[in-house]
Design goal:
The protein is mainly α. It has eight helices and two strands, in the order ββαααααααα. A hairpin with a 2-residue loop joins strand 1 (2-4) and strand 2 (7-9).
């Protein structure tokens, strides 16, 4: 509990970081896309679609993975206590954004490309909340002795898997920020590739980082002993590669048609 003007109020770091993440992510999207020649949706629409459906998807995914933690309606809506799954939120938000763009006649590929640095930055801030609250923690290690849980015995250290992801996401945010600044994504044949490359890059990290995690991974594993997040990562990698291949093939076909004309 923190005191504000003599009044004791609960201080929820994760919720505050989520709010900051949404604000900074929308600002960064606006900054990156403001000079684009392609029409974009109003910022308030993007914020509402992503925040509402992202949180809803992340919460539902967590409930499906950990149903034993939910015994009342209060448990379902207690977001301040944590309980969100990134992949659930990302995929649900992207689906909702895709439907919105189709209805409003905007280019979903363009919006997705320009959202990449924002997604990476917002996700990194979310992982800071995980680090503060000791969730998504790693297994024990004697190699890196900088992180341990409050419940661990003295001398026990763990892989700071949250920190690994924070650093990687910040690197991706910077790399894709400069890719967008180059204008590469504005060409018709490149639309959607930036988002695909990001999804593939993050999914690879997430797949590898899962091997170092030691928290509950959803109550079940596949026959290959992969966590649900690893299975999702593999699906995203395959879909991202397929999109790139199909996009390249389609561009060659379009070029061939133009040359024949």
């Amino acid at each position: 509990m923190k005191s504000l003007l003599g009044i004791d109020l609960p201080f929820y770091s994760y919720g505050i970081l989520m709010g900051i993440a949404f604000i900074l992510s929308i600002w960064l999207f606006n900054y990156n896309s403001r000079n684009s020649k392609i029409p974009r949706p109003p910022l308030i629409d993007i914020l509402l679609v992503i925040s509402i459906f992202g949180i809803l998807g992340a919460r539902i995914n967590y409930i499906l993975l950990f149903p034993q933690y939910y015994n009342s309606f209060r448990d379902y809506i207690a977001l301040h206590e944590g309980g969100l799954v990134f992949y659930g939120g990302m995929l649900t938000a992207l689906l909702a954004l895709y439907i919105y763009c189709r209805i409003k006649k905007y280019s979903f590929a363009m919006v997705a490309d320009y959202m990449v640095p924002s997604l990476a930055l917002g996700h990194a801030l979310g992982r800071v909340g995980c680090l503060i609250n000791d969730c998504c923690y790693g297994c024990q290690t004697n190699i890196i002795k900088i992180y341990h849980l409050k419940t661990d015995f003295a001398g026990v250290y763990r892989h700071p898997t949250q920190l690994y992801e924070i650093l990687y996401l910040l690197i991706l945010a910077i790399v894709f920020f400069f890719i967008l600044r180059s204008g590469w994504q504005e060409k018709q044949e490149n639309r959607g590739k930036t988002a695909s490359l990001y999804c593939i890059s993050y999914a690879i990290l997430r797949f590898l980082n899962e091997y170092l995690r030691d928290d509950a991974r959803g109550g079940f594993f596949t026959i290959l002993k992969l966590s649900p997040a690893q299975v999702t990562s593999l699906i995203i990698i395959i879909c991202g590669i397929l999109y790139m291949v199909i996009k390249k093939f389609k561009n060659k076909v379009d070029c061939g048609v133009k040359n024949n004309e």
